[in-house]
Amino acid sequence: MDNWKPNPRAQPFVPKRLYGSQHVSGLHVYHLPGRRFVTKVFQVALLIVLVVTVAINMIFIMETNKKLQQNPQGSSGFPSNEALVHGAGGGRKTLEKPKSLGIEVVSSHSKVSVSIDGATILEDFEENKNRGIHVVVLNQATGSVMAQRIFDTYSAKEDEAMILFLNMISGGRIIIFTIKDEGSYQLKKSAREKLKTMGSEKASYLKYRDMWAMVVVKGESRCYGESHSKAPNFSSWAAPVLLKTEVPLKFSEESECDWPASEMNHRRKSFCSKVEGYGSVCSCKDPAPITFDPEPIPDNQIADVPVAVIASNRPHYLYRMLRSLLTANGADPKMVTVFVDGYFEEPLEVTRLFGLRGIQHTPIGTKNARISQHYKASLTATFNLYPNAKYMIIIEEDMDVSPDFFGYFSQTVQLLEEDDSIYCISAWNDQGYEHSAKDPALLYRVETMPGLGWLLKKSLYKEELESKWPTPEKLWDWDMWMRMPGQRKGRECIIPDISRTYHFGAQGLNMNPYFQEVYFTKHKINTQPFVRLKSVERLKEAEYEELVHDLVKGAKVLNHSVDPCGDAFIPDTQDKTYVMYIRMDNDHDWTTFKPIAKCFKLWDLDIRGFHKSMWRLFMKSNHLVMVGVPAAPYAKYKPTDVVPIYIPPPPTPAKT
Fold it and tell me: Which position among 5, 94, 98, 183 has the lowest Cβ density within 10 Å, counted as fewest Cβ atoms?
C-alpha cells in the first residue's frame, strides 16, 4: 500500500444505498422516484374501494333478510326461502314463480303472425300459399312452441284432420288459432262444434273469407281471447284481426308425467317435453307403447337387408308409418334408418322416440328435383351404412305396411338374385283396389315400376342408376325416370295382387286431399300376418309366360256384345276366370283401355300394371284377364267370332 497513488482522473465512489441522497446534519434524506410513488397511491386507493364494496354488500344482505322476514312473499315478487323449495302443501316447486305470457295474434287475407312477449314465433306472408287455419301449440310451463300446423279448411277433409290433431293434443297446452286468406268453406259442423267445446263463441258463425283468431287452453273450456272480423261481401275479405291477450303459465311439475325410470321412458319424456299432437304416447296414466316385439318370420331371407324410410317435414305421417313398420312381423329397428329432407327437428324427434337412427340431408334443388336428390342421397347413404348389404327396402313416410310386409319380401327376394329380367320387387299394386284385388298369395309381373314400398338390388343401383340419376336442375319425378325405357331396359317388377302397403298421406308436393280420396283411399291392403305366396318360382320370365298362356287358354270368354261398363258384363259368380279382348293396335295404343279403366274404377291417370299388353285383376270376386288385340302375344287365343271391344276417343272440339 506504500506504493499506491490515487488516480486523478477517477470518478468519486458513491455507495448504492446512498444513491440519490443528500447529507444533512448527519442524516440521509431519500428522494422516491415518480413511478414508485404512483404505484403506492394506486394500491391504497384499491384497498379503500374494496373495503367500501364489502361494507355496502353486507348492508344490502342485512336489509334484504330483514325484509324477507317481515314479508315472505310481498310486493317485490320474491318468494321466501321456504317458498323457493316447497309449496303450501310441502311439494317440490320450481325456483321461479310462473308468470303470464303476452300473446299477440294477427289474422288477415295475406298474413298471419303470432308473437309471444314481443318475440315473433310465426309469421307467414307468402303470397297464395298456406291458406286456412294455422294452429300453434305452446308448452304451458315454458311457453315454448311444441307444434305448428296448417289446415286448409277451404278444401275437403282438412277439418277432419284438424279435429284429429286437436284430439291428440295433451290437456293443459296453450293453443292458438288464426286464419290466413280463407278457412271456413269446408269447416263442417263437427269441426265448429269441436272449437265451441274448446271455448270459442265465434266458430259457429265463421263465414266465407272472415278473419278469426283465438287463444285457449286445452281442457279448460275457457277462451283467453277471441276476435272475429266479418267479410263485407262474398268477393271481399274481412278486415285484419289483431288479438292481444295474456295466459298464465303453470309450474313445470303440472305439465310433466311421472313415468317410471327406464331408457324407453327417457326417450318418451324427452319427446313429450318438446312436441305435441301425438295423443296417448304422452299420456301420464296409460302411455302408448314405443317399443315393440313383433313375431319373427319363418326362414327369414332379409335379416341383413336395411330399410330406408324417406321422410320430409310431415312428422305425424312419419309417426304413424313407423308404428306400422315396427309392429310388422320380422321388423328389426337396428336395420331401419330415417332420412329427413331438410333440417327439421320434429321428424328427428319422432325418429328418436322410437330409438331409430335419423339422418338429415341438406336440400338440393326445388320441387320434384329436390325429392329426387333426397332419394339418391338416401339410397347411396344406405348402401354406405350397410356395405355388405346386397339389397335394400325403400318406404315413404306416408305409407302403412301390412303385418306380412317383411315376410312378403323374404319370400320374393330370391327372384332378384335368380332372374336378371326382374327390375324390382314392389309391395304395391297400382290396380289393387278393394273391388279389384282378392288373393293375398297371388303375384304378378308388370312392366311398370310401382314404387311405394320396394326392394332394390345394390348392383342395379351402383352399376346403372346412381351415375345416371337426374341432376338437380332437372325437375323430374325419380319414379317416372326409373320407368323410362333407358333405365328399365325391358325388365319387369314383381307385385302382389293385394298390396302390402297403403298410401294415407293427403298432403304433399304432388298430393292433395281430393287426389288421395279418388285414387288411394279405397286401395286394399293385406291384413293377414303370415301369408304363404303362391308359385313364387313361376314368376321367373319363362315360367310366367307359360303360366299366362295357360291362364288365357283356360279362361271363359265374356260376352263382348254387352256394354263393358255395365253391371251385367261380369257375371255374378265366384272364383271363376274370365277373359276379355280389347282393341290395341300396338303396345302403346291405350285408346280403349283408358275409358275401361275409368268405368272399372281403376288407376286411369296413366297406364300401369300391364304385362305384354295384358292386365290381370279381380272383378266381382272373379279373376279377369284383359288382353290387347293384336298387341298381346296372347291375342291368338281369341275366338274368331269375337270382336275386340273398341271404345273410340271422344271427338276433338272444333276450332272456333
Answer: 5
Output the pLDDT for position 386. 98
Hey, what's the cell of 203? 266458430
Structural element, H or E, at residue 68 = helix 34-70
- Buried/exposed 608-644: b ≥16 CB within 10 Å, e otherwise: bbbbbbbbbbbbbebbbbbbbbbbbebbebbeeebeb
**631 φ, ψ (degrees, to nearest 5):** -65, -40
d(CA 219, CA 254) in angstroms, rounded, equals 14
**146 three-class SS:** strand
pLDDT exceeds 60 at position 449 = yes
Planar angle of CA 27, 28, 30, nearest 5 degrees: 145
The rounded distance, in Å, linking the Cα atoms of 311 and 401 is 15
Strand 614-619 relative to strand 556-557, pairing: unpaired
Cα distance between residue 448 and residue 494, in whole Å: 10
CA 387 – CA 395 distance, rounded (Å): 20
pLDDT tens column, 174-210: 999 999 999 999 999 999 999 999 999 999 999 999 9
- The stretch 411-418 carries a mean pLDDT of 96
Instruction: Let me know: does 134 contact 150? Beta carbons within 8 Å.
Output: yes
Q: Is 134 helix (H, G, I), strand (E, B) or coil?
A: strand
Which of 215-224, 365-374, 514-523 is predicted with the least confidence, judged by mean pLDDT?
A: 514-523
Closest by alpha carbon to 463, among 533, 390, 547? 390
- Is residue 212 helix, strand or coil? strand
408 contacts 402 by C-beta, under 8 angstroms: yes
The residues near 580 (Cβ < 8 Å, ≥ 6 apart) are 557, 558, 560, 564, 624, 625, 626, 627, 645
Cis amide leading into 630 (omega within 30): yes
Distances (CA, A) of 11 to 22, 28, 219, 432, 474: 18, 22, 102, 119, 96
- Cα separation of 613 and 629, whole Å? 8
d(Cα 572, Cα 589) in Å, to the nearest integer?
30
What is the DSSP code string of 441-468? T-EEEESS---SSEEEEHHHIIIIIHHH
β-pair partners for 325: none
pLDDT digits (tens, 9 = 90+) for 137-163: 999 999 999 999 999 999 888 999 999
User: Beta strands of 376-512 (E only): which ranges?
Assistant: 391-396, 399-401, 422-426, 443-446, 454-457, 492-496, 501-503
> End-to-end distance of the chain based on CA atoms, in angstroms?
143
Statement: residue 83 has pLDDT above 70: no
| Pick from 12, 13, 30: nearest CA to 21 | 30
User: In angstroms, rounded to a whole number, what is the distance separating the alpha carbons of residues 531 and 358?
Assistant: 31
Cα radius of gyration rounded to whole Å, the chain: 38
What residue ranges in 538-606 does DSSP mark as E strands?
Answer: 556-557, 577-584
Distance CA 639, CA 630 (A): 13
Cα–Cα distance for residue pair 131/96, rounded to 1 Å: 40
pLDDT tens per residue across span 550-603: 999 999 999 999 999 999 999 999 999 999 999 999 999 999 999 999 999 999
Amino acid letter, residue 201: E
